Each structure stands twice: as C-alpha cells, then as structure tokens.
User: What shape does this take?
Amino acid sequence: MHHMIRRQRAAQAAIDTFLGKPLRWGGADCVRLARFHLHKLGVSVPLLQGVRYRSEARAKVELAALGFETLLEAVDATGFTRIAPAMAWCGDIIALPTPPDAPFDIALNIAVGNGRLLGLHQGQFSILQPAQFVAAWRVPVHG
Assistant: This one.
C-alpha cells in the first residue's frame, strides 16, 4: 500500500477514535493521540513503553523520569526528522504552542490534511486550522 494511503487511513482512525473526546490524562491526551497514531502506522516509539499516568502532575513526573525538561525535547528524542510545519504531510506530527499557564510547553497534533490538525482545543479533541506552530516532525512510514 502506498505510504500516503497508509498515512490517510491512520489519520482517519485517529479522528474516529479521538474527535469529540474530552481531555483525560493518560487516556485521551496529546501524547496518547500521537502514540495511537504512530501505532496505526506501525511506528514503534520505545520511549513511551511503560509510561503510565492518570494526572497532569504524574505526566510531568514521567517526563522528568525519562530525562526531559520539555515535551519538545522528548519528541526530538524519537529521532523523527524535524520539518517546516508548512511541509507537513497527512500523518505527520505538529507541535502547537500552549498558553503560558499550560502544564507543558507544546501540544502534539496530527496533520489530517488540507492544513488541518487533530488536537486538543479547550479540553476536547477537535479539528483545528492553526495559524501559529512550534515545530513539526516527519513520521517515517515504510512499506
């Protein structure tokens, strides 16, 4: 199957699973969204294996236990190639800025096509069309 079709199907599976769901730490949050999506693409992220949390505070503890001060550092450690957000394909990961009082430095989103992302907005997963970005990573899809 062509990699772009795999990307689109994985993005659609993420939409079907997360759209409209409220934020639930450790179950339905931006890291779990990215993990679900990567799993659908057959991409393993050993960094996330065994990481469990059910609260914002515990998520911060787990991030620190992995040796990272920020979520941005943790995503960079996956080895995915950073790209310009405008160059993102369906299925790539995009980091958006968070408010100053947010618990983490970025929010992870999935590019779903036509400049739109699946991510959290006001405590619920929504389709977004942002105007400001922090970073983006090309998700490697093989086969």
Summary: Residues 3-18 form the longest helix (16 residues). Helices lie at 3-18, 30-40, 56-65, 71-76.
